[in-house]
Amino acid sequence: MSRLISQEAARLAPYTPGEQPRDQQYIKLNTNESPYPPAPGVLAALAGAERERLELYSDPTCAALTQAAADFYGLEPDQVIAGNGSDELLSFAFRAFCGAGRGPVYADITYGFYKVWAQFYGLEPTVIPLREDFSLAVDDYLDARGTIFLANPNAPTGIALPTGEIRRLLEADRARLVVVDEAYVDFGAESCVPLIRDYDNLLVVQTFSKSRSLAGGRIGLAMGERALIDDLNRVKYSFNPYNVNRLSIAAGAAAMADRAYFERCTQAVARTREYTTEQLRALGFTVLPSKANFIFAKTECLGGKELYRRLKERGILVRHFDQPARITDYCRISIGSPKQMEALLAAIRALLEESEKEA
Amino acid sequence: MSRLISQEAARLAPYTPGEQPRDQQYIKLNTNESPYPPAPGVLAALAGAERERLELYSDPTCAALTQAAADFYGLEPDQVIAGNGSDELLSFAFRAFCGAGRGPVYADITYGFYKVWAQFYGLEPTVIPLREDFSLAVDDYLDARGTIFLANPNAPTGIALPTGEIRRLLEADRARLVVVDEAYVDFGAESCVPLIRDYDNLLVVQTFSKSRSLAGGRIGLAMGERALIDDLNRVKYSFNPYNVNRLSIAAGAAAMADRAYFERCTQAVARTREYTTEQLRALGFTVLPSKANFIFAKTECLGGKELYRRLKERGILVRHFDQPARITDYCRISIGSPKQMEALLAAIRALLEESEKEA
């Protein structure tokens, strides 16, 4: 830190993104990217007219992208806002819908950025522990005061809530906003987008980084009733109006337009997840029931940090979290291609044999 | 606004970007874009390898881009941070270097976003009026307490300060940060980047939207002593770590690498500016002495709003600001291609004839 930093900024506790090493070719199963390239139409869009107009500002309303998203979901374009990744939109939601006396409410084990944004905006969070089995019980949230942020499926557990449960939460207090972070919803969980027409206290946030194979394009969406989207635009125009560049707008619109490719990729990931889960369980692993493009798994034979470390030695990156204590035995493993997962399983079998010999 | 917006967000007063109309082909002289396409290497970079890896996150450190900028300026890469446009980095600077008891200090007439960010972060600004002739007098800032934000050249006046004056400000109080917003510096003003080695209380912010012909790519830079860049990274990693997408990193690096093209374009804009200024003065306009890629001009024959309106009717967009009162007679006119400026001059000649007949 410099001697000139403000006291407020000195107190920030930044997020640590997953490793992006450049020193070696790893099998990267640590940041939940897609093993598949973007839809073919994305490359075509990038070779198109937008490339010829880069000297002109991008459309601050991102109309081509919000229209494509609206078409996909049967919404109106003014029920959608696009962002520079869903992280930017979640941050805007913290700014728009939390404040003094109205902090964010979230689980103790969930997307690690929620607590960072709470600090970024000087908010008092309410943290509600997951149950013993890592499930999120809606009953624990019914009386919570503030703005609720739910990752569904949750990260890093992968466990999903049925929309009926979220509906129950929305009904419990119509004067309370529920933000559902659906970063991982497309791999087998139920989206809350269809509930938007019934609930003006629901905001759904999605990302193109997982199911749309565009992590490198930095595109996110938030969807909800018009007035909520107006509020987010109010924040966006107070922060960075031209927040999505021309090429990402074009790429995102093209990705949204190809439903068949999207379904093929997400279904393939779900199949690979089920296969990997079975194989790991056969090797004695505990694997939480995931609906995401990752699994959260542990073995009695090796600590979580040790598993991470030994896999990295073998050229495979997974993600380990040092805290909270009750997840330190686990590793979060992204679902890669079938070939990558076979390499993971082979490495794990070898590690288990090694550790048996050591014992 | 929704019924669920926070009190804090309801108080925001968002920035109004220049019009981006889609209903008609205008000669767009309202948002200070470049009339020239990006360097040829930019299109080549976009057709290159990054396009094939869009399913993977972009490098959160933007190493290729910060290295290219460091090479251009003779800095080290850790003296540079890249952003999603310079607006994002300026916003980060407000967060990193202002706080309670240490508000931002800026001119009454300057980039309109400074006051928006002050409100976004709940800061108390100190606003210092420009002198009668719209010049910024460093003497007025020597005793100011807070973090100083100077646009140099200033917007929308186009008037530049020599770096000697900024050096005087840096010397006056080494415990006070001066942020120099050099969005428009490349068209004939002096950059403060060479002062970075001497002053650890200097941060320089630049954009690719003007002199690098990449407004649609959304790329900005901040440069300063390592510890200041660390502080900005602290904010970035508390807000949106993957803030620049893969294609913009590649495009920005390629734009930085072609110094000859950059100099050709910026010099051409400066020549067109001088020509346009002479022509307008010959038509009786008052034109402030601009070093930017726009001019700020008024005529006695028509009010600023009326000039804006009548030019728009003729298919030419310029920018008019409703306040403060002492600039409402002016319009800000971006410097386009020579052909676009001839069209502007022809339209203005016709308007002046019309208004003479009316009188």
- Amount of beta strand of chain A: 5-15%
First-last Cα distance of chain A:
46 Å
What is the total tally of β strands of chain A?
12
Name the chain pair whose interface involves the most residues.
A-B, 91 and 91 residues
Structural class determined from secondary elements of chain A: alpha/beta
Approximate shape of chain A: globular
Helix proportion range of chain A: 25-40%
Mean pLDDT of chain A, to the nearest integer, reads 96
Poorly predicted regions of chain A: none
Overall radius of gyration of chain A:
21 Å
Physical arrangement of strands within the biggest beta sheet of chain A: 2-8-7-6-5-3-4
Mind describing the biggest β-sheet of chain A? 7 strands, mixed
| Assembly state of the chains shown | homodimer
- Order of helical and strand elements of chain A: HEHHEHEHEEHEEEHHHEEHEEH
* Number of DSSP helical runs of chain A: 11
Name the features.
homodimer, 359 residues, alpha/beta, 3-stranded antiparallel β-sheet, 11 helices, 12 strands, globular
Could you please describe the fold and organization of this structure?
The structure is a homodimer of 359-residue chains. The first copy, chain A, is α/β, with parallel strands linked by helices and 359 residues long. Helices cover 36% and strands 13% of the residues of chain A. Chain A is built from 11 helices and 12 strands. In chain A, the strands form 3 sheets. The first copy, chain A, has a 7-stranded mixed β-sheet, with helices on both faces. A 3-stranded antiparallel β-sheet of chain A has the order 9-10-12. The mean pLDDT of chain A is 96. The interface between A and B is large, with 91 and 91 residues.
